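In response to the reviewer comment on reproducibility (Comment 2.3), we provide here a single inverse folding case reported in full, input and output, so that an independent group could reproduce the run without further information from us. The C-alpha coordinates appear first.
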Protein backbone atom coordinates (compact mmCIF):
# COMPACT_ATOMS: atom_id res chain seq x y z
CA UNK A 1 0.00 0.00 0.00
CA UNK A 2 1.31 3.44 -0.94
CA UNK A 3 2.07 5.66 2.04
CA UNK A 4 1.20 9.33 2.41
CA UNK A 5 4.03 11.49 3.73
CA UNK A 6 3.61 15.14 4.73
CA UNK A 7 6.90 17.08 4.97
CA UNK A 8 7.11 20.64 6.24
CA UNK A 9 9.74 23.25 6.99
CA UNK A 10 9.33 25.90 9.63
CA UNK A 11 7.93 29.18 8.36
CA UNK A 12 10.49 31.97 8.94
CA UNK A 13 9.91 35.52 10.06
CA UNK A 14 10.13 37.94 7.14
CA UNK A 15 11.80 40.77 9.05
CA UNK A 16 14.67 40.57 6.55
CA UNK A 17 15.66 38.68 3.42
CA UNK A 18 16.34 34.92 3.66
CA UNK A 19 19.70 33.53 4.76
CA UNK A 20 21.59 30.32 4.10
CA UNK A 21 20.41 28.69 7.34
CA UNK A 22 16.85 28.53 6.07
CA UNK A 23 18.09 27.34 2.68
CA UNK A 24 19.63 24.37 4.51
CA UNK A 25 16.22 23.41 5.90
CA UNK A 26 14.56 23.83 2.50
CA UNK A 27 17.13 21.64 0.76
CA UNK A 28 16.94 18.95 3.44
CA UNK A 29 13.14 18.86 3.18
CA UNK A 30 13.35 18.76 -0.61
CA UNK A 31 15.72 15.78 -0.50
CA UNK A 32 13.39 13.85 1.80
CA UNK A 33 10.37 14.67 -0.37
CA UNK A 34 12.09 13.67 -3.62
CA UNK A 35 13.45 10.49 -2.06
CA UNK A 36 10.07 9.37 -0.76
CA UNK A 37 8.47 10.09 -4.15
CA UNK A 38 11.10 7.92 -5.83
CA UNK A 39 10.26 5.15 -3.36
CA UNK A 40 6.58 5.36 -4.34
CA UNK A 41 5.07 7.48 -1.56
CA UNK A 42 2.46 10.15 -2.11
CA UNK A 43 4.25 13.24 -0.78
CA UNK A 44 3.24 16.78 0.10
CA UNK A 45 6.15 19.19 0.68
CA UNK A 46 5.09 22.47 2.25
CA UNK A 47 6.84 25.66 3.33
CA UNK A 48 5.75 29.25 3.90
CA UNK A 49 6.38 32.54 5.68
CA UNK A 50 5.51 33.78 9.17
CA UNK A 51 4.16 37.29 8.55
CA UNK A 52 2.40 38.05 11.85
CA UNK A 53 5.41 38.71 14.07
CA UNK A 54 6.23 41.78 16.16
CA UNK A 55 9.74 41.46 14.72
CA UNK A 56 8.27 42.16 11.31
CA UNK A 57 6.38 45.20 12.62
CA UNK A 58 9.49 46.68 14.24
CA UNK A 59 11.57 46.04 11.12
CA UNK A 60 8.91 47.74 8.97
CA UNK A 61 8.86 50.73 11.31
CA UNK A 62 12.65 50.99 11.15
CA UNK A 63 12.45 50.91 7.36
CA UNK A 64 9.71 53.52 7.28
CA UNK A 65 7.43 51.21 5.30
CA UNK A 66 3.91 49.94 5.95
CA UNK A 67 3.88 46.53 7.60
CA UNK A 68 1.97 44.71 4.85
CA UNK A 69 4.13 46.24 2.14
CA UNK A 70 7.26 45.33 4.09
CA UNK A 71 6.33 41.69 4.73
CA UNK A 72 5.11 41.26 1.14
CA UNK A 73 8.48 42.35 -0.20
CA UNK A 74 10.53 40.08 2.03
CA UNK A 75 8.11 37.16 1.73
CA UNK A 76 8.55 37.31 -2.06
CA UNK A 77 12.28 36.72 -1.58
CA UNK A 78 11.56 33.60 0.48
CA UNK A 79 9.01 32.13 -1.88
CA UNK A 80 11.33 32.82 -4.83
CA UNK A 81 13.97 30.45 -3.42
CA UNK A 82 12.19 27.48 -4.99
CA UNK A 83 13.78 28.33 -8.34
CA UNK A 84 17.45 28.89 -7.42
CA UNK A 85 17.48 25.93 -5.03
CA UNK A 86 15.59 23.59 -7.42
CA UNK A 87 12.89 22.78 -4.88
CA UNK A 88 9.91 20.59 -5.73
CA UNK A 89 7.53 22.42 -3.36
CA UNK A 90 3.82 21.55 -3.38
CA UNK A 91 2.44 24.42 -1.30
CA UNK A 92 3.57 27.74 0.18
CA UNK A 93 1.43 29.42 2.82
CA UNK A 94 1.70 33.06 3.88
CA UNK A 95 0.11 33.74 7.25
CA UNK A 96 -0.93 37.34 6.52
CA UNK A 97 -2.29 36.73 3.03
CA UNK A 98 -3.57 33.17 2.70
CA UNK A 99 -7.35 33.05 3.31
CA UNK A 100 -7.02 29.52 4.68
CA UNK A 101 -4.89 30.60 7.59
CA UNK A 102 -6.95 32.98 9.73
CA UNK A 103 -10.04 30.80 9.52
CA UNK A 104 -8.05 27.74 10.58
CA UNK A 105 -6.26 29.53 13.44
CA UNK A 106 -9.59 30.75 14.81
CA UNK A 107 -11.05 27.25 14.62
CA UNK A 108 -7.99 25.83 16.39
CA UNK A 109 -8.27 28.42 19.17
CA UNK A 110 -11.92 27.56 19.74
CA UNK A 111 -11.16 23.83 19.81
CA UNK A 112 -8.60 24.34 22.60
CA UNK A 113 -10.99 26.67 24.42
CA UNK A 114 -13.72 24.02 24.22
CA UNK A 115 -11.28 21.56 25.80
CA UNK A 116 -10.95 23.89 28.79
CA UNK A 117 -7.30 24.65 28.11
CA UNK A 118 -7.41 28.44 27.65
CA UNK A 119 -7.72 31.04 30.40
CA UNK A 120 -6.75 34.67 31.10
CA UNK A 121 -4.40 35.91 33.81
CA UNK A 122 -1.95 38.70 34.56
CA UNK A 123 1.67 38.00 33.76
CA UNK A 124 5.08 39.61 34.18
CA UNK A 125 8.17 38.27 32.50
CA UNK A 126 11.32 38.84 30.47
CA UNK A 127 10.63 38.84 26.75
CA UNK A 128 12.96 38.49 23.76
CA UNK A 129 11.48 40.07 20.64
CA UNK A 130 14.03 38.19 18.50
CA UNK A 131 12.75 34.83 19.76
CA UNK A 132 9.20 36.09 20.33
CA UNK A 133 9.45 34.20 23.62
CA UNK A 134 9.40 34.72 27.40
CA UNK A 135 12.40 33.40 29.32
CA UNK A 136 12.81 32.42 32.96
CA UNK A 137 15.81 34.07 34.68
CA UNK A 138 17.56 30.68 34.97
CA UNK A 139 17.47 30.28 31.17
CA UNK A 140 19.37 33.50 30.47
CA UNK A 141 23.04 33.82 29.62
CA UNK A 142 24.44 36.59 31.78
CA UNK A 143 21.00 38.18 31.85
CA UNK A 144 20.74 38.13 28.06
CA UNK A 145 18.87 36.00 25.53
CA UNK A 146 20.80 32.72 25.18
CA UNK A 147 20.18 32.69 21.41
CA UNK A 148 20.48 36.35 20.35
CA UNK A 149 22.68 37.76 23.13
CA UNK A 150 20.33 40.73 23.51
CA UNK A 151 18.84 42.33 26.61
CA UNK A 152 15.28 41.27 27.31
CA UNK A 153 12.25 43.48 27.81
CA UNK A 154 10.25 43.29 31.04
CA UNK A 155 6.61 42.88 30.06
CA UNK A 156 3.61 43.18 32.39
CA UNK A 157 0.11 42.62 31.03
CA UNK A 158 -2.93 40.35 31.07
CA UNK A 159 -2.87 37.60 28.41
CA UNK A 160 -4.54 34.35 27.48
CA UNK A 161 -2.69 31.22 28.61
CA UNK A 162 -2.63 27.61 27.46
CA UNK A 163 -2.66 24.77 30.03
CA UNK A 164 0.58 23.13 28.89
CA UNK A 165 1.07 21.64 32.35
CA UNK A 166 -1.90 19.35 31.72
CA UNK A 167 -0.04 17.49 28.94
CA UNK A 168 3.33 16.62 30.50
CA UNK A 169 2.60 12.91 30.98
CA UNK A 170 1.13 12.42 27.51
CA UNK A 171 4.05 14.22 25.87
CA UNK A 172 6.54 12.11 27.82
CA UNK A 173 4.76 8.94 26.68
CA UNK A 174 4.59 10.02 23.03
CA UNK A 175 8.29 10.82 22.88
CA UNK A 176 9.49 8.01 25.14
CA UNK A 177 7.70 5.34 23.09
CA UNK A 178 8.84 6.79 19.76
CA UNK A 179 5.28 7.55 18.68
CA UNK A 180 6.65 11.07 18.27
CA UNK A 181 10.18 10.49 16.97
CA UNK A 182 12.75 13.24 17.49
CA UNK A 183 16.05 12.96 15.64
CA UNK A 184 18.90 13.13 16.43
CA UNK A 185 18.74 11.39 19.82
CA UNK A 186 20.55 14.29 21.49
CA UNK A 187 17.58 16.52 20.70
CA UNK A 188 15.07 13.92 21.93
CA UNK A 189 16.91 13.73 25.24
CA UNK A 190 16.92 17.53 25.43
CA UNK A 191 13.14 17.62 25.07
CA UNK A 192 12.60 14.85 27.62
CA UNK A 193 14.83 16.72 30.08
CA UNK A 194 12.81 19.90 29.55
CA UNK A 195 9.57 18.04 30.23
CA UNK A 196 11.05 16.37 33.32
CA UNK A 197 11.90 19.82 34.70
CA UNK A 198 8.19 20.65 34.85
CA UNK A 199 5.97 22.29 32.26
CA UNK A 200 4.40 25.66 32.96
CA UNK A 201 1.40 27.10 31.20
CA UNK A 202 2.47 29.64 28.58
CA UNK A 203 1.08 32.90 27.28
CA UNK A 204 -0.65 32.62 23.89
CA UNK A 205 -1.79 36.21 23.27
CA UNK A 206 -0.42 39.73 23.33
CA UNK A 207 -2.20 43.02 23.87
CA UNK A 208 -3.26 44.65 20.63
CA UNK A 209 -1.36 47.76 21.72
CA UNK A 210 1.95 45.92 22.20
CA UNK A 211 1.42 44.02 18.93
CA UNK A 212 0.91 47.37 17.15
CA UNK A 213 -2.44 46.06 15.94
CA UNK A 214 -0.72 43.46 13.73
CA UNK A 215 -1.79 39.83 13.87
CA UNK A 216 -4.93 37.72 14.19
CA UNK A 217 -7.35 38.96 16.90
CA UNK A 218 -8.28 36.54 19.65
CA UNK A 219 -11.80 35.24 18.91
CA UNK A 220 -14.22 37.20 21.08
CA UNK A 221 -11.47 39.42 22.57
CA UNK A 222 -10.40 42.15 20.13
CA UNK A 223 -8.09 43.74 22.71
CA UNK A 224 -5.72 40.78 22.27
CA UNK A 225 -3.97 39.26 19.24
CA UNK A 226 -2.96 35.62 19.04
CA UNK A 227 0.68 34.97 19.98
CA UNK A 228 2.77 34.63 16.85
CA UNK A 229 3.97 31.11 17.70
CA UNK A 230 0.42 29.85 18.25
CA UNK A 231 -0.53 31.48 14.97
CA UNK A 232 2.51 30.18 13.07
CA UNK A 233 2.43 26.58 14.28
CA UNK A 234 -1.14 26.33 13.06
CA UNK A 235 0.06 26.67 9.46
CA UNK A 236 0.77 22.94 9.33
CA UNK A 237 -3.00 22.38 9.60
CA UNK A 238 -4.46 25.54 8.10
CA UNK A 239 -2.73 24.92 4.77
CA UNK A 240 -4.53 21.57 4.68
CA UNK A 241 -7.92 23.25 4.93
CA UNK A 242 -8.43 22.98 8.70
CA UNK A 243 -11.32 25.33 9.26
CA UNK A 244 -12.46 25.42 5.63
CA UNK A 245 -12.45 21.99 3.95
CA UNK A 246 -11.15 18.81 5.57
CA UNK A 247 -10.36 16.56 2.59
CA UNK A 248 -6.67 17.47 2.51
CA UNK A 249 -6.54 17.40 6.31
CA UNK A 250 -7.71 13.78 6.30
CA UNK A 251 -5.30 12.84 3.52
CA UNK A 252 -2.15 14.58 4.73
CA UNK A 253 -2.59 14.83 8.51
CA UNK A 254 -5.18 12.61 10.13
CA UNK A 255 -4.69 9.71 7.73
CA UNK A 256 -1.05 10.19 6.70
CA UNK A 257 1.47 7.53 7.68
CA UNK A 258 4.20 10.13 8.29
CA UNK A 259 3.80 13.75 9.41
CA UNK A 260 7.32 15.15 9.33
CA UNK A 261 8.50 18.56 10.59
CA UNK A 262 12.01 19.82 9.80
CA UNK A 263 13.12 22.42 12.34
CA UNK A 264 16.22 24.20 13.62
CA UNK A 265 17.41 23.44 17.13
CA UNK A 266 16.49 26.96 18.28
CA UNK A 267 12.75 26.29 17.83
CA UNK A 268 12.71 22.71 19.08
CA UNK A 269 10.73 23.48 22.24
CA UNK A 270 7.90 25.03 20.25
CA UNK A 271 7.61 22.09 17.86
CA UNK A 272 8.30 19.17 20.20
CA UNK A 273 6.49 20.39 23.35
CA UNK A 274 4.04 23.24 22.69
CA UNK A 275 2.75 22.09 19.30
CA UNK A 276 1.99 18.43 20.18
CA UNK A 277 0.23 19.58 23.35
CA UNK A 278 -1.85 22.08 21.37
CA UNK A 279 -2.79 19.34 18.90
CA UNK A 280 -3.84 16.98 21.69
CA UNK A 281 -5.97 19.73 23.18
CA UNK A 282 -7.65 20.38 19.82
CA UNK A 283 -8.35 16.67 19.28
CA UNK A 284 -5.77 16.26 16.50
CA UNK A 285 -3.04 13.65 16.14
CA UNK A 286 0.56 14.80 16.77
CA UNK A 287 3.36 14.74 14.18
CA UNK A 288 5.19 11.46 13.75
CA UNK A 289 8.67 12.88 13.20
CA UNK A 290 10.55 16.04 14.22
CA UNK A 291 13.91 16.22 12.46
CA UNK A 292 16.28 18.79 13.94
CA UNK A 293 19.26 20.47 12.32
CA UNK A 294 21.88 22.60 14.04
CA UNK A 295 23.10 26.04 12.96
CA UNK A 296 25.23 27.32 10.13
CA UNK A 297 27.89 29.80 11.17
CA UNK A 298 30.21 32.30 9.52
CA UNK A 299 33.56 32.58 11.29
CA UNK A 300 31.93 30.99 14.30
CA UNK A 301 28.95 33.36 14.40
CA UNK A 302 25.45 31.98 13.91
CA UNK A 303 23.95 32.92 10.56
CA UNK A 304 20.78 34.91 11.19
CA UNK A 305 18.77 37.70 9.62
CA UNK A 306 19.21 39.98 12.63
CA UNK A 307 22.51 38.78 14.09
CA UNK A 308 24.89 40.52 11.70
CA UNK A 309 26.21 37.40 9.94
CA UNK A 310 24.18 36.47 6.90
CA UNK A 311 24.57 34.81 3.51
CA UNK A 312 22.00 35.39 0.77
CA UNK A 313 21.30 31.95 -0.75
CA UNK A 314 19.96 33.37 -4.01
CA UNK A 315 23.12 35.44 -4.49
CA UNK A 316 25.22 32.41 -3.61
CA UNK A 317 23.49 30.33 -6.29
CA UNK A 318 23.91 33.16 -8.79
CA UNK A 319 27.67 33.07 -8.24
CA UNK A 320 28.32 29.36 -7.75
CA UNK A 321 25.33 27.49 -9.15
CA UNK A 322 22.56 25.40 -7.63
CA UNK A 323 24.53 22.15 -7.62
CA UNK A 324 27.47 23.61 -5.70
CA UNK A 325 25.27 25.21 -3.03
CA UNK A 326 23.06 22.15 -2.53
CA UNK A 327 26.10 19.87 -2.47
CA UNK A 328 27.89 21.89 0.21
CA UNK A 329 24.78 21.92 2.40
CA UNK A 330 24.32 18.16 2.09
CA UNK A 331 27.98 17.06 2.27
CA UNK A 332 29.43 19.50 4.81
CA UNK A 333 26.70 19.94 7.43
CA UNK A 334 26.90 17.26 10.14
CA UNK A 335 23.95 15.44 11.62
CA UNK A 336 24.83 16.95 15.01
CA UNK A 337 26.83 20.13 15.47
CA UNK A 338 27.15 23.46 13.74
CA UNK A 339 28.84 23.92 10.36
CA UNK A 340 30.97 26.94 9.46
CA UNK A 341 30.49 28.28 5.95
CA UNK A 342 33.22 29.73 3.78
CA UNK A 343 33.22 30.22 0.00
CA UNK A 344 36.51 28.32 -0.13
CA UNK A 345 34.91 25.22 1.39
CA UNK A 346 32.01 25.40 -1.04
CA UNK A 347 34.33 25.79 -4.03
CA UNK A 348 36.67 23.06 -2.82
CA UNK A 349 33.83 20.59 -2.36
CA UNK A 350 32.27 21.40 -5.74
CA UNK A 351 35.54 21.22 -7.68
CA UNK A 352 36.91 18.19 -5.86
CA UNK A 353 33.82 16.01 -6.01
CA UNK A 354 31.47 17.35 -8.67
CA UNK A 355 33.91 18.54 -11.35
CA UNK A 356 36.94 16.31 -10.71
CA UNK A 357 35.04 13.31 -9.37
CA UNK A 358 31.65 12.84 -11.00
CA UNK A 359 32.12 15.10 -14.01
CA UNK A 360 35.45 13.52 -14.89
CA UNK A 361 34.04 10.00 -14.46
CA UNK A 362 31.09 10.53 -16.80
CA UNK A 363 33.30 12.24 -19.37
CA UNK A 364 35.78 9.35 -19.31
CA UNK A 365 33.10 6.70 -19.66
CA UNK A 366 31.21 8.40 -22.48
CA UNK A 367 34.43 9.32 -24.29
CA UNK A 368 35.64 5.72 -24.20
CA UNK A 369 32.32 4.43 -25.53
CA UNK A 370 32.59 6.91 -28.40
CA UNK A 371 36.23 6.09 -29.03
CA UNK A 372 35.98 2.31 -28.90
CA UNK A 373 32.34 1.63 -29.79
CA UNK A 374 31.40 4.67 -31.93
CA UNK A 375 29.04 5.88 -29.20
CA UNK A 376 26.97 2.68 -29.08
CA UNK A 377 26.32 1.45 -25.54
CA UNK A 378 27.70 -2.11 -25.21
CA UNK A 379 24.96 -4.73 -24.88
CA UNK A 380 26.43 -7.60 -22.89
CA UNK A 381 25.68 -9.49 -19.71
CA UNK A 382 29.18 -10.92 -19.45
CA UNK A 383 30.85 -10.21 -16.10
CA UNK A 384 33.46 -7.47 -16.20
CA UNK A 385 36.93 -8.44 -14.95
CA UNK A 386 37.91 -7.34 -11.42
CA UNK A 387 34.65 -5.41 -10.88
CA UNK A 388 33.57 -6.88 -7.54
CA UNK A 389 34.11 -3.71 -5.48
CA UNK A 390 32.34 -1.51 -8.02
CA UNK A 391 29.40 -3.91 -8.35
CA UNK A 392 29.08 -4.03 -4.57
CA UNK A 393 28.96 -0.22 -4.34
CA UNK A 394 26.27 -0.13 -7.05
CA UNK A 395 24.23 -2.83 -5.33
CA UNK A 396 24.46 -1.39 -1.81
CA UNK A 397 23.78 2.29 -2.54
CA UNK A 398 19.94 2.35 -2.55
CA UNK A 399 19.60 0.57 0.80
CA UNK A 400 22.35 2.67 2.36
CA UNK A 401 20.63 5.86 1.21
CA UNK A 402 17.28 4.65 2.57
CA UNK A 403 18.80 3.90 5.98
CA UNK A 404 20.74 7.16 6.16
CA UNK A 405 17.78 9.37 5.25
CA UNK A 406 15.55 7.47 7.67
CA UNK A 407 18.08 8.52 10.33
CA UNK A 408 18.13 12.13 9.01
CA UNK A 409 21.81 11.78 8.04
CA UNK A 410 22.47 13.54 4.75
CA UNK A 411 26.25 13.15 4.95
CA UNK A 412 25.95 9.37 5.17
CA UNK A 413 23.35 9.28 2.40
CA UNK A 414 25.49 11.26 -0.05
CA UNK A 415 28.53 9.17 0.92
CA UNK A 416 26.72 6.08 -0.42
CA UNK A 417 26.39 7.79 -3.79
CA UNK A 418 30.01 8.87 -3.71
CA UNK A 419 31.21 5.35 -3.02
CA UNK A 420 30.08 4.48 -6.56
CA UNK A 421 31.90 7.50 -8.03
CA UNK A 422 35.11 6.66 -6.19
CA UNK A 423 34.95 2.95 -7.01
CA UNK A 424 34.23 3.64 -10.69
CA UNK A 425 37.19 5.99 -11.01
CA UNK A 426 39.42 3.48 -9.23
CA UNK A 427 38.13 0.74 -11.50
CA UNK A 428 39.05 2.69 -14.63
CA UNK A 429 42.58 3.31 -13.32
CA UNK A 430 42.94 -0.33 -12.33
CA UNK A 431 41.54 -2.01 -15.48
CA UNK A 432 42.91 0.61 -17.92
CA UNK A 433 40.40 0.13 -20.77
CA UNK A 434 42.68 1.94 -23.23
CA UNK A 435 45.21 -0.88 -22.85
CA UNK A 436 42.50 -3.54 -22.90
CA UNK A 437 41.38 -2.14 -26.26
CA UNK A 438 44.75 -3.11 -27.74
CA UNK A 439 44.73 -6.68 -26.44
CA UNK A 440 43.40 -9.84 -27.98
CA UNK A 441 40.50 -9.82 -25.48
CA UNK A 442 39.36 -6.37 -26.56
CA UNK A 443 35.96 -7.51 -27.77
CA UNK A 444 34.21 -9.29 -24.93
CA UNK A 445 36.12 -7.91 -21.94
CA UNK A 446 36.10 -4.33 -23.13
CA UNK A 447 32.37 -4.51 -23.78
CA UNK A 448 31.83 -5.84 -20.23
CA UNK A 449 34.01 -3.12 -18.69
CA UNK A 450 32.29 -0.32 -20.58
CA UNK A 451 28.83 -1.76 -19.84
CA UNK A 452 29.64 -1.94 -16.12
CA UNK A 453 30.93 1.64 -16.09
CA UNK A 454 27.87 2.89 -17.94
CA UNK A 455 25.64 1.06 -15.46
CA UNK A 456 27.57 2.76 -12.65
CA UNK A 457 27.00 6.25 -14.09
CA UNK A 458 23.31 5.57 -14.61
CA UNK A 459 22.98 4.30 -11.04
CA UNK A 460 24.77 7.40 -9.78
CA UNK A 461 22.28 9.59 -11.66
CA UNK A 462 19.34 7.69 -10.18
CA UNK A 463 20.72 7.78 -6.63
CA UNK A 464 21.78 11.42 -6.97
CA UNK A 465 18.33 12.63 -8.05
CA UNK A 466 17.00 13.60 -4.59
CA UNK A 467 20.21 15.44 -3.73
CA UNK A 468 21.16 17.17 -7.00
CA UNK A 469 18.16 16.88 -9.32
CA UNK A 470 19.63 19.18 -11.98
CA UNK A 471 23.00 17.41 -12.10
CA UNK A 472 21.34 14.00 -12.04
CA UNK A 473 19.26 14.96 -15.06
CA UNK A 474 22.39 16.04 -16.96
CA UNK A 475 24.15 12.77 -16.15
CA UNK A 476 21.09 10.82 -17.30
CA UNK A 477 20.97 12.70 -20.61
CA UNK A 478 24.69 12.15 -21.15
CA UNK A 479 24.33 8.41 -20.54
CA UNK A 480 21.10 7.78 -22.49
CA UNK A 481 21.30 6.85 -26.21
CA UNK A 482 19.65 9.11 -28.77
CA UNK A 483 19.01 7.30 -32.08
CA UNK A 484 21.13 4.44 -30.81
CA UNK A 485 24.19 6.47 -29.76
CA UNK A 486 25.20 8.31 -26.61
CA UNK A 487 25.43 12.11 -26.94
CA UNK A 488 28.92 13.44 -27.47
CA UNK A 489 30.69 14.04 -24.13
CA UNK A 490 30.34 17.55 -22.74
CA UNK A 491 31.31 19.14 -19.38
CA UNK A 492 28.76 18.48 -16.65
CA UNK A 493 30.10 20.98 -14.10
CA UNK A 494 31.87 24.30 -14.30
CA UNK A 495 35.07 24.67 -12.35
CA UNK A 496 34.71 27.39 -9.74
CA UNK A 497 37.27 29.78 -8.33
CA UNK A 498 37.47 31.15 -4.83
CA UNK A 499 36.04 34.63 -4.40
CA UNK A 500 37.93 37.86 -4.40
CA UNK A 501 37.67 39.92 -2.30
CA UNK A 502 37.26 37.60 0.68
CA UNK A 503 33.84 37.12 2.24
CA UNK A 504 32.72 39.93 4.54
CA UNK A 505 30.52 38.50 7.31
CA UNK A 506 29.10 41.94 8.08
CA UNK A 507 27.67 42.49 4.60
CA UNK A 508 27.30 38.94 3.32
CA UNK A 509 29.33 39.92 0.21
CA UNK A 510 30.90 36.84 -1.35
CA UNK A 511 33.08 38.70 -3.87
CA UNK A 512 33.42 37.83 -7.52
CA UNK A 513 33.66 34.30 -8.85
CA UNK A 514 34.81 32.88 -12.15
CA UNK A 515 32.40 30.10 -13.17
CA UNK A 516 34.03 29.45 -16.53
CA UNK A 517 34.84 25.83 -17.29
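Designed residues, in position order:
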Amino acid sequence: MTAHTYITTTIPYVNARPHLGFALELVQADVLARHRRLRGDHVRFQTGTDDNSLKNVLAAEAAGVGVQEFVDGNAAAFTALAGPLSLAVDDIIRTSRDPRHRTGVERFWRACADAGDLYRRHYEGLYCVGCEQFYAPAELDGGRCPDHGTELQRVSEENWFFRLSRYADRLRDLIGTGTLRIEPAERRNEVLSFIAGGLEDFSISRSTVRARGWGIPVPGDPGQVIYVWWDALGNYLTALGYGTADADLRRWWTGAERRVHLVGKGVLRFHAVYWPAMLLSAGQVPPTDILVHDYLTVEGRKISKSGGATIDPAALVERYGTDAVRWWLLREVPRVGDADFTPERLVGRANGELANGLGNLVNRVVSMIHRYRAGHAPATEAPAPDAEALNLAIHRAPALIDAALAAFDFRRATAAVWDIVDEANRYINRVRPWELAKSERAGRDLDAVLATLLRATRTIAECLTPFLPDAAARVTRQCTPVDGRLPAPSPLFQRLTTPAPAHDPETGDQGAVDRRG
